[in-house]
Design a protein that fits this description.
The protein is α/β, with parallel strands linked by helices and about 230 residues long. Helices cover about 40% and strands about 10% of the residues. It is built from 8 helices and 5 strands. A 5-stranded parallel beta sheet has the order 3-2-1-4-5, sandwiched between helices. Helix 2 links the parallel strand 2 and strand 3. Helix 1 crosses helix 6. The longest helix has 16 residues.
Length: about 230
């Protein structure tokens, strides 16, 4: 029987952990791939290691690709301030990292072909997100067409499939899925800052905290969020 291997792009965040858990639930042999791209929020790499261990992923690669060398994003350039005024609809915030998912998926394709994996599972989401161009269905569809032509496996009719099981779910639905799958939510890291605890005011924290509250898991919200809501009630 052929082993069904899947490469999981495991960032350390809630979405990627949930997507990875879905691949495990489906019976896939999961190979984890995390990217050290020079991000200011280094704790997400620590979270990725913990999640790989908690999810019993036996093979986990951490690859260094220094996207911080040329900046272009507040996630790779500490001279740029993180946006803290809340998610602005119809705009792409400065937390967007130029070409990040294109680089990540390309590395994933290389690893998948080398390991004989049939899929790459991605935690990208097009509903509750910050407007990034590389988290949308049209981008994924276009990249799939490229992937089918870009390697030996695709040319031989055994193309590696991009699988984004969360792309059309909102954050509350993702949290419910994570809970159902037994994802260790406390080990995930979504904050854009480089603090010891989540800042609670960056876009990612705001989206996560609001969804956790709606999902009935206020206990997992950031300290800032809990302090703020307590004072607001008072």
């Amino acid at each position: 029987m052929n082993e069904f291997k899947t490469i999981a792009l495991l960032s350390g965040g809630l979405d990627s952990a949930t997507a990875t858990a879905l691949a495990i639930e489906a019976g896939h042999i999961v190979i984890g791939l995390s990217i050290d791209y020079g991000q200011r929020h280094r704790k997400e790499l620590e979270a990725a290691k913990k999640l790989a261990n908690e999810l019993e992923i036996k093979e986990h690669h951490i690859i260094k690709v220094n996207l911080a060398a040329w900046g272009g994003s507040s996630l790779t350039d500490k001279k740029q301030a993180l946006p803290v005024e809340g998610v602005q609809k119809q705009t792409i915030p400065n937390t967007y990292v130029p070409g990040r998912n294109t680089v990540f998926i390309s590395i994933g394709l290389s690893l998948a072909e080398a390991k004989g994996a049939k899929r790459i599972v991605l935690g990208v989401n097009a509903i509750d997100y910050s407007g990034y161009p590389d988290c949308r269905p049209d981008y994924l569809n276009a990249f799939q067409s490229l992937a089918n032509l870009a390697n030996k496996a695709g040319r031989e009719g055994n193309g590696i499939k991009l699988w984004a099981p969360l792309v059309n779910l909102n954050k509350v639905q993702i949290i419910h899925e994570a809970i159902r799958l037994g994802v260790p939510l406390k080990e995930t890291w979504s904050c854009y800052s480089d603090h010891e605890t989540p800042c609670g005011i960056c876009d990612s924290c705001r989206i996560r905290d609001e969804a956790l509250l709606k999902a009935g898991r206020k206990d997992l919200c950031s300290n800032w969020f809990n302090d703020y809501t307590s004072k607001k009630i008072m």
